[in-house]
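Q: For a teaching session next week I want to show students how multiple molecules come together into a single three-dimensional assembly. I've collected the sequence lines for a complex. Could you give me the predicted structure tokens for the whole thing so I can convert them for display?
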Amino acid sequence: MIAYLIRHYIFTLIVLKNAQKQKTTALLENSQYQPTVSILIPARNEERVIGRLLQRMTELTYPKEKLQIIVIDDASTDETREIAEQYSKTHSCIEIIHRSEKEGGHGKASALNAGSKHANSEIIFCFDADYHPQGDILEKLTEVFANPKVGVVQGRITVLNEPQNIVTRLVALERIGGYRIDQQAREDLGLIPQFGGTVGGIRRSLLERLGGWDESILAEDTELTFRVYLAGFRVGYIYDAECYEEAVESWRAYWKQRYRWAKGHMQCAFKHSLRVLKSKNLRLREKIDGLLLLNVYFMPVLVLCSWIIGIPLFFLKSSQLLSILWASIPISLYSFVGNFAPFFEVGIGAYLDGRNRAQWLIPLLIFTFLYNILICTKALADLTISKILRRNTNHWTKTVHSGNGNSYIIN
Amino acid sequence: MIPNQTPTTFIMLTIGALTFIFIMFLPALLELKKPKDAGPRLIMKDVPIMRSKMREAILITNMEEEQKSDQTLIRKIADVIAVLPNLEV
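A: Of course. Below is the structure for the complete assembly, covering every listed component.
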């Protein structure tokens, strides 16, 4: 827990220190490297948002002759297919793949694998159906592929429907912490920036070599990140290549999404922790960061354990030996500041984004942290039970997008 | 842990803790009640995004425009009906 705390402070201070330098670097780098690009858009019942994204795709400034957009209609039962077909008729670069009821509905990784078979470009990008990217985002993201060591690129995600309610506002703060600080610090320190499975791309040759996305893991993006690093490539993070997303709007939807992330991350930890330790392609600092990243969702469970042990001991007036364990209380409380980096990290991220008023909401992140304790504990319990019983309980719970983000875009 | 524990100490500690919690959450409550943050962050030059400060004003403008267009439509329908022959016997 202390390791996470130290990590978050180091990350935050590094980004704060480099804040001015980043702007200069971004302006100086102006290469003209423009490979062919395929964009995969997995869509299952996304009628409320798919039109917005496809319209935006037609407005991208990237040369159209180098662009292939593939919509993967993952057995949708709503109007997703019809909307996509309308765009496909009027724009030759948009293609649609229809998946039957039997083929579809098995999760994002499965849909992406189906789509990647049709991709014929050098770089494969992924965008979720509820996203709304900058017009020149592909130019910014593809630049880093001029470096042959870069296998994957990741852009920044910003919440579009932030003012909607308290949940979206807190998710926006979490995103600021994650993308303005965490990812940026990893990039600056040469650690392991994470591929988020969307607003990012991978070399097609590398994806084929790795055998595509792993459909047995719920966090297919994190899993791919580690296979990329273990194969000797790295992930580049471009903080000014930004894209809007529609954040979850209710606590129930938040639970479902984070539960999937937590369980998927834990699956990755079981799969890759030892490989990361043994890898000859990773430097020591990458190994340390990789292990911290893989195991981050176990931390809330550890905090819960330390409370369960610590609080009764505090009240029991126990012996001298047991009193040593009282230390677990301040440690666990102290770890609040480090785990999930909600306070210092988010505060600095909001400051760097010029969002001083948003900082006022930071204390409320304590509730998302408490909520995450429950989510991660449930995820670990379910994973343990499924391991013992040897049952596959990987049910992909899709995040429902209401399309409320549309009202924030002025046409 | 606490020397000379008395009911007064306990009450003082509870009041202190509650005050601390209240002060800690006060800015957040104020911001929630009357949002002044201009989010979401603007990331695009070519697409204007409705930010929270402007949002209400723009929504009202849109509603007024919708009402105007509704009134125009009603007026057109009324004009058409007026031209139609009287079907009442």
